[in-house]
Amino acid sequence: MKSEAIVSNTTQIEARSVGKTFGKFHALRDVSLQISEGEFLSLLGPSGSGKTTFLTLLGGYEPVTRGRLMLEGQDMTSWSANQRGFGMVFQGYALFPHLTVAENIAFPLKVQKRSKAQVTDRVAQMVEMVGLSGHEHKKPKALSGGQQQRVALARALAYEPKVLLLDEPFSALDKNLRGQMQEELRRLHRDLGTTFVFVTHDQEEALALSSRIAIFNHGELQQIGTPDEVYERPANRFTAEFLGDINILSLDAEAGGIAGTPLELPASATAYEHVAIRPEHMRLAAAGDGNQLPARVRDRVYLGSKSRLLLETRAGEELMLYFDNGPGLPPPDRGAELNVVWDTRDSFAI
Amino acid sequence: MRPVLFLICPVLLFLGASYLLPFLGIVQLSFTDPDPGLAQYGRVLTEDLPTGVIWRTLRLCVIVTAVSVSCAYVITLLWVRGSPLVRSITELCIMIPFWISVLSRAFGWLSMLSNRGLLNTWLQDLGLIDSAIQMTRNEFAVVVGMSHYLIPFAVFPLATAMRNVDERVLTAADGMGASRLRIFWQVFLPMTASGIMGATLLVFVFSIGFYVTPALLGGGQSVLVAELIYLWLFQIPQWGMAAAMSVVLMLGVGGILFILMRRYGEMAK
Ligand SMILES: Nc1ncnc2c1ncn2[C@@H]1O[C@H](COP(=O)(O)OP(=O)(O)O)[C@@H](O)[C@H]1O
Ligand SMILES: [Mg+2]
């Protein structure tokens, strides 16, 4: 379900060791990344990880403290937001409350001194594009959250920017509307071919929408890659735990596995202290080919089509996995002793 | 009876006894003294002296309101959006007047503006003027004195409105390339319109009832409604006329308030 827009290999934006401090506080440290033309890049991370800060640096709304920002090979570090000419959808939308929908969208066009006819045409086109026909003369307060969101999108896209920056555009919407807006955003991205840089703290949203995801924590870039790369091959423990569920076991170097149980480990494991396996890669079995680990069922949560099992290894570590409530065996009861099995290829060392 | 109503009963009684009853007395007086009927109202609304005073009051109060709210807007802008130093200086300038009585301030302006006051002396010493400019005992002095008194009151509704302006909206406008001038006139000013409305309302209503400042700084040359009522009460007693004028003033202020409040309500929507 990735956005199907064509992502060229041309680097459009490049951040070189970008840092930002507020007083003594390091909001961003040494962030380097490249954004390709037409890409849908998500900036993902917990609240306070520096996503908004990075976006405002990209847009030119705040000066960088350290590092350089390049746009198509030119140094844009000292350019103002207007000189960069990116579109921006602010968190909370930042619509002009005293202007109507049409006037909001027209504002940037009027600033650019376009002719009246051009402005009228373009506004009508944008209203149509975001599906707000019939609401042109309403003020933002008279609109629902989703409609305000569309106005913000239309306003940011009105002057056909090469890059659109979006700061948690859907965080204020309820779940159904969110899904619908995500769908529309993907359609827009596909139709326009504009580069989207999208801030979110919702991992599902990031996985579903992006061509690549940049993961932030404590102002540092943890990993950047396609959704499957970051999910299946997390670069570190933070990324592994932040995206989806994961089981993490401590390694015992001398035993060649986990304390008490020798295991077959991924090749890279020697230098690391933990091995991680996604719950969907683990099965319950009497005996199997891959790695086996005896464990006891501590708790079972019925979730309808499946059950979530909480297990404890002999070393006292917790494991979590899903059991399909399909035909066949019923899920094991609390206290049952069994083997957890996984394929070495599905595990990774961190 | 609901407990809440029961609890506010004493307040209602107190307000009734201290405001409503005397006011009803005034209404009665206006229809009966000296002759029963509408004669007093007829005189208030047709005779040259009272109508002249009413128009002058209205004109002056409109000017004072415009001057006060404009000055207050600039001051509030400095207070809310200035650098920390500018902020603390402005804050001091806003608070100090509150500690000085209206009487002292009127006398202060007298000593500033009178023919041998500070301003005229300086201007003469600098050789900018030959003889003193008449700056007291006229409407100019009244406007200066009243505005000076009323500006701080206009600051608070304006400050509330300015603090409520979402910074990101201004950032957004800036990012679209709007000049500072455009951002001010087309974004910031309209976004603070409710504050301007509130300040206008407050200052206008206050200004109508002014007595001390116009009496002192106007020097009897520009008599306003409140002064005329005082005159009719204590110097050339015509209580019926004073009462009729009070009722007219009351209704006038009420009417203007009503209209402005409705506009204000629409704006807040
Ligand atoms: N203008 C600012 N002044 C001081 N600290 C700030 C400012 N903007 C952001 N920060 C701090 O920088 C950190 C990162 O903020 P932000 O980029 O908004 O995080 P995110 O968008 O990922 O939630 C936070 O700890 C925040 O408090
Ligand atoms: Mg944020």
TrEMBL record, chain A:
Q: Which residues form the ABC transporter domain?
A: 13-243
Keyword presence, Nucleotide-binding: yes
* Alphabetic keyword roster: ATP-binding, Nucleotide-binding, Transport
Its Gene Ontology cellular component terms are: ATP-binding cassette (ABC) transporter complex
Q: Does the keyword Nucleotide-binding apply?
A: yes
Quote the Gene3D superfamilies the UniProt record gives. P-loop containing nucleotide triphosphate hydrolases
Q: Which domain of life is it from?
A: Bacteria
- What Gene Ontology molecular-function terms does this entry list? ATP binding; ATP hydrolysis activity; transmembrane transporter activity
The family database entries (Pfam families) matched by this protein are listed as: ABC_tran, TOBE_2
* GO biological process terms held by the UniProt record: quaternary ammonium group transport
What is the designated name of this protein? ABC transporter, ATP-binding protein
| Organism name | Salipiger bermudensis (strain DSM 26914 / JCM 13377 / KCTC 12554 / HTCC2601)
Query: What is the organism lineage in this UniProt record?
Result: Bacteria, Pseudomonadati, Pseudomonadota, Alphaproteobacteria, Rhodobacterales
UniProtKB/TrEMBL annotation, chain B:
Q: What is its main location?
A: membrane
Subcellular location(s): the record lists: Cell membrane
What keywords is this UniProt entry annotated with? Answer: Cell membrane, Membrane, Transmembrane, Transmembrane helix, Transport
Tell me how this protein sits in the membrane.
Answer: Multi-pass membrane protein
Which CDD domains is this protein grouped with?
TM_PBP2
Looking up InterPro entries in the UniProt record yields: MetI-like (IPR000515), MetI-like_sf (IPR035906)
Q: Does the keyword Cell inner membrane apply?
A: no
Return the protein name: ABC transporter, permease protein
Q: Specify the species.
A: Salipiger bermudensis (strain DSM 26914 / JCM 13377 / KCTC 12554 / HTCC2601) (Pelagibaca bermudensis)
